[in-house]
Amino acid sequence: MTKLEILEVAKNLFFKAMLHNHHKLKEIHDSETFLFKNCLQTTKLSNKTVGTITIYYNKIPVWWMSCCGFCKKEALPFLIEARTKAYETGEFIGGHGVSELRHANLIYLNMVKPKHDFSCFDGVEIIEEYTNDCFLNDLFPFAYFKYCGMSLLNENN
Q1: pLDDT in tens, 74-91
Q2: Helix (H, G, I), strand (E, B) or coil at 86
Q3: Is the pLDDT of residue 23 over 60?
Q4: Is residue 47 situated within a structural domain?
Q5: Which of 51, 70, 85, 123 is the most buried if burial means most Cβ atoms within 10 Å?
Q6: Domain count, the chain
Q7: Is residue 99 part of a domain?
Q8: CA distances (Å), origin 62, targets 56, 68, 84, 98
Q9: Residue 26 falls in which region: left (phi positive, over 0), alpha (psi -120 to 50) or beta
Q10: Are 109 and 82 in contact (CB under 8 A)?
Q11: 4 C-beta neighbours (distance < 10 Å), count
């Protein structure tokens, strides 16, 4: 398989796994050659989360993503909704939610560079209280996650 073919299968596996109860799933095999592994760490002592996702091809890591942040309990359903919408469409926006989503007085923003690039990306997602075109509290959002990821394949594969 070429690098592009490997990354395309890996991206499809990523979406399949994330739609399958993404916050609880530990690993999924797409075939004997591809494996998705999710290592998510949470604690009952806070609302903070850290984690990594690694996708393997023939037991060799070919793609990796890391994420850390927090989400207040009352914003968690909205966060899951924003992420699920992106996963259902198969649109890769840093492996997180849609670019923007509003619900009642909350706004979800996902800012990633470069957009739609599965092979290398860096971004942040936030949920803030929003009313009359103003953010009410920039210093204390309801959710904040920093993430990055990349292909582990050489450019010439």
Answers
A1: 999 999 999 999 999 988
A2: helix
A3: no
A4: yes
A5: 123
A6: 1
A7: yes
A8: 5, 21, 24, 25
A9: alpha
A10: no
A11: 11
